[in-house]
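Technical annex B. To support the medicinal chemistry partners, we prepared a structural model of the target in complex with zinc ion, based solely on the information shown next.
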Amino acid sequence: MNKKAFEKNFTGKAIYTAAVVFLVGAIVILLGKSFLVKAEEPVPLPVIMYHSLCADTPSEYAVTPRQIENDLQWLKNNGYQTVTAQQVISHTRHLETLPENGVMITLDDGFYNNLSVLVPLLEKYDMTAVVSTVGRYMDNDAVKDPHNPKYSYLTWEDTAELVKSGRIELGNHTYDMHSLYDGRVGCSRNAGETEADYRKALLADIQRLQEEFRENIGFYPVIFTYPFGSVSRESLPVIRDSGFLMTLTCREQMNYITREPDCLYGIGRYNRSGLYSTEEYMARLFNS
Ligand SMILES: [Zn+2]
């Protein structure tokens, strides 16, 4: 081979090698990218919202013990598993990965039947739930007429029992803003109230209940649940600054959990009205 022919042959080989390296590299990058994108897809998280569990006659905000047991049985039989708020929080921080078949169970207002009816069912079906309580109901109402499964609220001792079960996480449902009176709807800003006055009122209410949690239970909950789902533009900064990592609303929508902790502010939930059968309700929850 003369020098010219050698050079021609060498250049051809070099171009061929470079092309192969480029192609293989491109394939590796594209494949890697598609795996990465897949791993980071948001995880759907349907959330159920119950209230009282001991109705004789089911209503929009009360189911019967039979209905909630049917619901839990349905979830189990259809391959769903409950996830805790802590698991969801950990997912957003890359500390763990949520399952694709997760569902979160929440209960609002803190009825005594959340202890007497729910905890044994959670044990039976190996599930967990979040119970959001109202401070004033616990301090004033629960002690006056305790432990009636039909209508009583949880006392602080009952709430400690919930935590001891290892199956319940607690949420702050305000100390005394769970009402539609005095012009204020839940914990939203009043018409005519200055922004500073609103912030002060909300902060005082939330912190009062947080301190009572710490005194009675030993920790500050990180879940805040808007009464009636009512919220103002000025609410979240106060709630976030108070240390809450997740807020629960009454917006009936599916959640998509990403690796971004802020996606937990404004979790949607489907009210479990007792007026639906288990199958009708689950169809709404999972086919939304
Ligand atoms: Zn409520």
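Notes passed to the chemistry partners:
The mean pLDDT is 92.
Residues 108-109, 173, 178, 227 surround zinc ion (CB under 6 Å).
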